[in-house]
Write a structure and sequence with these properties.
The chain is built from two helices and no strands. By secondary structure, it is an all-alpha fold. Helix content is 39%, strand content 0%.
Amino acid sequence: MAKYTATIDEGTRQRIHALPGRVHFSAFMRKAITVFVEELEKNPDLRPEHFIITHTARKDTADKKGK
């Protein structure tokens, strides 16, 4: 699998590291990237300014492992 990287500013990096331990940043990013790719597959002419990240109250349990 290919790895892609993008630079982020130092302030954002510090804010990510300061998140509480219960926040699983990678799970949030996996979901965001999946939605992003799906939208670009539908319309490859989209630009970064066309995307707005929002929060919903729905719980997505698809990424949780069974106990």
